[in-house]
């Protein structure tokens, strides 16, 4: 009788260990599933950002948004006066980039034509940048000291909210 009772106790211990391990594994899976559910509902979703408008007007507006209102209006007025010239320069640059793309698609490929198209694109980009910088400089000449200070702090890579410190 003693031998059978010790065998039953051994089986009882094994059953307890199996039940304990099973409980631990189940708690692990439940915890993992709970963490995934919480993560899904509580983490911010990935934001899809809209493409940046690279037109001259949008660039000037992004700069003007960081300036005091009177200085922003000065910059907008300067842009309105020179908008046609800036837009034409931007269009010329876009056409030059399109010509580069056309040279890549050409059969047979002509490396010299690509280099010429790239050179033309650099010239038109430089012209656009010069006109944009001229507009900013002429606007700055009419701005207040705080407006020019804000203009000096402007960075296209920093969000506008970080500039208003």
Key attributes of the depicted protein:
mainly alpha, 2 domains, 165 residues, 0% strand, disordered C terminus
List strands and helices in order, with pairings.
Blueprint: H1 2-42, H2 56-64, H3 69-105, H4 111-142, H5 145-153
Helix pairs in contact: 2-3, 3-4
Main beta sheet strand tally, sense and closure: none
Order of helices and strands: HHHHH
Instruction: Give the domain tally.
Output: 2
Q: Which word captures the global form? A: elongated
How far do the termini sit from each other? 86 Å
Radius of gyration: 34 Å
- Mean pLDDT across residues: 85
- Unreliable residue stretches: 160-165
Helical fraction equals over 70%
Number of helices: 5
Q: Which structural category do the helix and sheet elements fall into? A: mainly alpha
**Beta-strand level of the residues, as a percent range?**
under 5%
Q: Tell me the number of strands.
A: 0
Task: Provide structural commentary.
The chain is mainly alpha-helical and 165 residues long. The protein folds into two domains: 48 residues; 108 residues. Helices cover 78% and strands 0% of the residues. The protein contains five helices and no strands.
Condensed summary:
This protein is mainly α and 165 residues long.
């Amino acid at each position: 009788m003693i031998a059978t009772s010790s065998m039953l106790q051994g089986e009882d211990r094994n059953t307890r260990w199996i039940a304990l391990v099973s409980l631990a594994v189940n708690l692990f899976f439940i915890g993992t599933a709970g963490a995934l559910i919480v993560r899904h509902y509580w983490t911010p979703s990935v934001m899809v950002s809209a493409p940046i408008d690279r037109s001259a007007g949008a660039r000037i507006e992004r700069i003007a948004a960081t300036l005091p209102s009177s200085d922003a209006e000065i910059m907008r007025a300067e842009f309105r006066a020179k908008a046609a010239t800036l837009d034409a320069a931007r269009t010329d640059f876009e056409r030059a980039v399109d010509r580069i793309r056309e040279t890549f698609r050409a059969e047979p490929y002509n490396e010299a034509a690509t280099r010429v198209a790239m050179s033309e694109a650099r010239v038109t980009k430089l012209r656009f940048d010069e006109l944009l910088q001229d507009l900013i400089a002429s606007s700055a000449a009419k701005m207040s000291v705080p407006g020019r200070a804000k203009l000096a702090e402007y960075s296209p890579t920093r969000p506008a909210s970080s500039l208003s410190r």
